[in-house]
Design brief:
With about 350 residues, the chain is α/β, with parallel strands linked by helices. It contains 12 helices and 7 strands. Bound molecules: thiamine diphosphate and magnesium ion (MG).
């Protein structure tokens, strides 16, 4: 069987979004979800290796464990919808259809990176793919995401802004100023809270009131909210469809609290001593988003173990090529030091 990941299909310009309207996955969608999540996982594993080898400097926050959130929501989006998120952003870029080579080269600070090697892991953008960063200041992307939605509403272009933030960021004041404005102006923004239960080394209940009900905070602003199993890509896509419908029909913002989990440390420099290894192990064994889809694919006779191994092999080639590019591409020239600082109209 010929299998193409959504990334590959988007690159080839062959993806037909109208196929994605029904809730409940077609066999092709199961394969697509599997491939897209696996691309993120393999990419992140490679990024972790390159970091260990000294090719990536500074901070590097991996998305391993959370793949179903961004992939399921990407399946609910349409071309032109925007995405903005925090520093844990590699998965969002790949799901947005950005080229793994350009993303990896940015991580290693090379010319071919999306920010010409001058932004790194936390600061890259693609207007073409409607990806607006990559933000290192916790919560800062939330008002910016509402700003994107404000522009959409002003232009009446039917687009929706997907604004992602974490459980820790949900404690920032600017989030609630944004909820208020988004609600009164009925902005087409889906606020996606990725509740992965930790903010750096702090378990959410230690710092956060009602830490397992963050979406409900939107209720005070009249924003509808849902709590979703963020490890199940089906549940994510279905909730995403409801949120998008709400926003696109002019009803204003919507909140999705995605209950998810990160397997790795907060960043590469985190020894993760604040949680038991068994907790991570249990999550991996019982709730892994990729294994869940794999089991459905095998059980439903959609594809065989061998087919899935072939997909993995294809993805490994894409990731290896991205890593080779990211290591071989030159660093930016010194003359680039003072360029791209301000945008001139
Ligand atoms: C305004 C601000 N305060 C503190 C930090 C340091 N910091 C970086 S990430 C982080 C935790 C955020 O956790 P969460 O929002 O749950 O996102 P996650 O890392 O789990 O994806 C903190 C406190 C920062 N970058 N910006
Ligand atoms: Mg968190």
């Amino acid at each position: 069987m010929v299998v193409k990941s959504a990334y590959m299909a988007r690159k080839a310009g062959t993806r037909d979004k109208s196929e994605l309207k029904n809730s409940g996955f077609t066999p092709e969608e199961e394969i697509q979800a599997y491939s897209d999540m696996l691309l993120i996982r393999r990419f992140e594993e490679k990024a972790g290796q390159l970091y260990g080898m000294g090719f990536i400097g500074g901070f590097c926050h991996l998305y391993i464990g959370q793949e179903a959130v961004v992939v399921g929501l990407q399946m609910a989006q349409e071309e032109g919808d925007q995405v903005i998120t925090s520093y844990r952003d590699h998965g969002h870029m790949l799901a947005s259809g950005m080229d793994p080579k350009g993303v990896m080269a940015e991580l290693t600070g090379r010319r071919g990176g999306y920010s010409k090697g001058k932004g790194g892991s936390m600061h890259m953008f693609s207007r073409e793919k409607q990806f607006f960063g990559g933000h290192g200041i916790v919560g800062a992307q939330v008002p910016l995401g509402a700003g994107l939605a404000f522009a959409d509403k002003y232009k009446n272009n039917g687009r929706v802004s997907f604004t992602y933030f974490g459980d820790g960021a949900a404690n920032q004041g600017q989030v609630y100023e944004t909820f208020n404005m988004a609600s009164i102006w009925k902005l087409p923004v889906v606020f996606v809270i990725e509740n992965n239960r930790y903010a750096m080394g702090t378990a959410a209940p230690r710092s956060t009131a009602m830490a397992d009900q963050l979406g409900a905070r939107g209720g005070a602003f009249g924003i509808p909210f849902e709590q979703v199993d963020g490890m199940d890509v089906h549940a994510v896509k279905e909730a995403g469809d409801r949120a998008v419908e709400h926003c696109r029909t002019g009803e204003g913002p919507y909140i999705l609290e995605m209950m998810t989990y990160r397997y790795r440390g907060h960043s590469m420099s985190d020894p993760a001593k604040y949680r038991a290894k068994e907790e991570v192990q249990k999550m991996r064994e019982e709730h892994d988003p990729i294994e869940q889809v794999k089991a459905r694919i095998i059980k439903g006779n959609i594809a065989s173990e061998d087919d899935l191994k072939k997909i993995d092999a294809e993805i490994r080639v894409i990731v290896t090529e991205a890593a080779e590019f990211a290591q071989g591409d030159p660093e930016p020239d010194v003359s680039e030091l003072w360029t791209d600082i301000y945008v001139t109209a």
